[in-house]
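Notes from the 1:1 (GR / supervisor)

We went over the backlog. Supervisor wanted to see one worked example end to end before approving the batch request, so GR pasted a single chain during the call. The sequence is below; no edits were made to it. Supervisor asked that the structure be written out right there so they could see what the output format looks like.
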Amino acid sequence: MFETFKNAWKIPEVRTKILFTLLTILIYRIGCKIPVPGVDVGYIADQVTSNSTFLGLFNVMSGGAFESFAVFALGITPYINASIILNLLTMVVPALERLSKEGEEGRKKISTYERYLTVVLALIMAVGFTLSMREALIDDGIFSIIFVVVTLTAGSTLLMWLGERATEKGIGNGTSVIIFVGIVSRVVPTAQTLLANVSAGTIPFWVIPLLVIGVVLMFAAIVFIDGGERKIQVNYAKRVVGRKMYGGQSTYIPMKVNASGVLPIIFAVSVASLPQMIAGWVSPESGFATFVAKWLSQTSVIYLVVYALLIVFFSYFYSQVSFNPIEVSKNLKENGGFVTGIRPGKPTSDYLMKILSRITLVGALYLAAVAILPIIVGIIFPQISNMAIGGSSVMILVSVALETTNQLESQILMRNYKGFLK
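Structure output shown during the call:
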């Protein structure tokens, strides 16, 4: 693997992509350390510590920027929520659906709408968090509030722009890489807190080896499932075009068990945490905040069920987006291809849809188990319930690492270098 990285560094184009990605990460981490002027950072940190359910998770997703109320305190969450809303609207709004089918120009227009919506959502979140943390403002006048809101909104907009540039000119998906770096930045503080609790006697020593074994097994399961796929054999009939004969070959259609990767978990976390976010903006004594604290907290059964259902929903949603059985069947028929034992046309699309539904169900249940089981373990063993790195975080780490590694490997293989797997 090190030899492959060495070879990648020798390729000017790949080296430029790696350096651009590293520059994006550097800017992101600097922005996570620059606090918004006029804010009592100690008060914000105390609120994050006392509210380890939602604010703790939000702090992890923002790479620790929220507890210091930094410029990038909102993280990439507004951009993720905007992507969710636009993707869902594309399925129900005919005008957006037509745009999505117009090729590159249509996708550019949808991306523009996505950016505008990101700014609006960032503004709403900035207003909500600023008003809910008003006691942290050194000067709670109207101009001070406006300054903090504008700074947070601008920081989230800049982070969106950095993610898009990293996707375009770097290695991997820029948004996923930013989330990955944010979670990795919390690993060392979490380990330090764990060791301190063990030294203080609040957590038994035997918990550490169990955690290590659990994380290793989770990593192994994620890598195993991520590489799983169903191969549908396809044969091409022989046909003569001019003086040349085409076809007569056999290939296969790869259908991955987890075709949507880490996106369902990222989107499900954003949607499931929305009530807790809104509850943090209103008075703790209000009826809505009381209802959310009782029924929709991260330790409640309703939250776990909704979280799992959202993961299943987004898994099916993105499997349909990434793999369209009707289009695949149409392309096979036009090129003289057919699935072994299945007639071309509608029977082929029905067969592919059936296989896709079964495979997606397995992948969705696997994602839900990875995300929920650590939460259940935290409920059973309260000593480790405040661990910042949960199942969803581990899933994001492994999936983004594999996705980025595969993209880097493809860049190298296109230039006749050996891949990571010898």
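Supervisor's comment: The first helix runs from residue 2 to 10.
Batch request approved.
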